[in-house]
């Protein structure tokens, strides 16, 4: 134990632990959870409120945030209409926004969303940027610039994402490869957007093989339409297993899962377990959502993602994961404390697990990425979904709202 720590958070209530403690932070890490007073260079009084791990946003289209005024309502209406039967049309309509959207535009709007996230205690983001012959690498390069510029505050993982397809948009595959060679963290994919199952399988294979060659992970949007015959989650799980990419894959959306017959759902559970696939749900941005609680019960990690902020698909969003969880509580019928606790896990520790952040826990020795809330229970935290009183990134207070 240090004599005088860098930061001490007194009177902290921790989830799953009786009584109040001092969270002692030094050199960016949690060094003690102490029942007795410890002196700190900086001392903060949590006042008996919850202190937890900071929030993780496992899926955000960061290159599209705050573009709603450019595109209007037309794509969002198409995405949700007819039981998500028009999801593909929506993506085609939304692509129009990119024709005159510069790297500077992406940078400015994405920066605003990241700083909003920090204010709300979001310190890790898996950020998708479209890559295609229209926008080229403008989105990826803008996000990589922000990754470097804001790296002391927030961990941004950039996904090079072929939103409009690979086989449908010749030239895109080479651009994704170039994005990865320039430093994108993760290979993206959206196999269900292709026109045949064979092309969807080829899309999945190409992107997973690129990830294997580059030594990085894969994050794909799978089965994101109201079509129970969609099978791209399966394709992803099969490729990850074949290439030995165990624990390196993330499946986003997978809304068609809610329409699958039970025997097929159970096969997907087994395939996901075999390759360590994690999922991200975003029930507030579409009328269907994946079976998050059933997957969690089966031992498969599931996160909630912000997905969209004021873009073609969704008119709201403040990069507030408590707000996302609050909305999910309604849409996923989570009303008891157990359900609410799970939602909280889905924006903190389970989301970290989905992204492979093994040390994102409020335990001694872990990095001090923390939020000091205004509430003394998870239920009250979700009910208010207010910004944390303090946000601590790597041991340093980076936002305060008192
Ligand atoms: Zn999405």
Descriptive notes:
The mean pLDDT is 95. The protein has 402 residues and is an alpha/beta fold. The protein is globular. The strands form three sheets. Strands 6-7-8-9-10-11-12-13 form an eight-stranded parallel β-sheet. A four-stranded mixed β-sheet has the order 3-2-1-4, with no helix packed on it. Strand 11 (249-253), helix 9 and strand 12 form a beta-alpha-beta unit. The protein has helices at 68-71, 74-84, 87-94, 103-119, 138-149, 172-182, 197-214, 232-242, 262-275, 292-297, 321-331, 337-346, 349-354, 378-384, and strands at 4-13, 20-26, 29-34, 39-45, 51-53, 55-60, 122-130, 155-161, 186-189, 217-222, 249-253, 278-281, 302-304, 370-372, 390-393, 396-400. Helix 8 runs parallel beside helix 9 (262-275). Bound molecules: zinc ion. Zinc ion binds next to strand 11.
């Amino acid at each position: 134990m240090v004599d005088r720590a860098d930061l001490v958070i007194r009177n902290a209530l921790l989830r799953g632990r009786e009584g109040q403690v001092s969270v002692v932070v030094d050199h960016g890490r949690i060094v003690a959870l102490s029942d007795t007073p410890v002196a700190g260079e900086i001392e903060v009084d949590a006042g008996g409120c919850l202190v937890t791990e900071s929030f993780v946003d496992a899926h955000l289209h960061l290159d599209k945030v705050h573009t709603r005024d450019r595109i209007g309502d037309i794509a969002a209406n198409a995405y949700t209409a007819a039981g998500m039967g028009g999801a593909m049309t929506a993506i085609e309509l939304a692509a129009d926004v990119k024709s005159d959207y510069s790297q500077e535009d992406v940078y400015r709007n994405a920066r605003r969303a990241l700083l909003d996230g920090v204010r709300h205690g979001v310190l890790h983001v898996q950020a998708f940027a479209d890559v295609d012959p229209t926008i080229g690498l403008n989105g990826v390069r803008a996000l990589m610039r922000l990754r470097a510029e804001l790296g002391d505050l927030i961990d941004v993982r950039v996904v090079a994402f072929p939103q409009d397809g690979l086989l449908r948009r010749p030239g895109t595959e080479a651009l994704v490869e170039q994005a990865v060679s320039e430093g994108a963290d993760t290979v993206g994919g959206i196999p269900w957007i292709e026109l045949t199952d064979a092309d969807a399988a080829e899309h999945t294979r190409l992107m997973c093989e690129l990830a294997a060659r580059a030594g990085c992970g894969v994050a794909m949007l799978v089965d994101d339409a109201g079509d129970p015959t969609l099978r791209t989650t399966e394709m992803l799980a099969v490729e990850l297993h074949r290439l030995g990419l165990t624990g390196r894959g993330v499946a986003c959306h997978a809304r068609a899962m809610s329409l699958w017959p039970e025997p097929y759902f159970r096969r997907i559970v087994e395939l996901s377990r075999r390759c360590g696939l994690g999922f991200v749900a975003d029930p507030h941005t579409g009328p269907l959502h994946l079976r998050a609680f059933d997957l969690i019960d089966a031992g498969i990690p599931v996160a909630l993602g912000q997905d969209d902020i004021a873009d073609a698909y969704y008119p709201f969003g403040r990069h507030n994961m408590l707000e996302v969880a609050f909305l999910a509580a309604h849409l996923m019928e989570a009303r008891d404390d157990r359900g609410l606790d799970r939602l909280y896990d889905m924006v903190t520790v389970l989301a970290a697990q989905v992204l492979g952040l093994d040390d994102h826990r409020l335990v001694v020795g872990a990095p001090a990425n923390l939020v000091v809330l205004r509430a003394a229970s998870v239920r009250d935290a979700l009910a208010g979904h207010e910004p944390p009183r303090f946000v601590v990134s790597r041991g340093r207070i980076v936002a305060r709202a008192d």
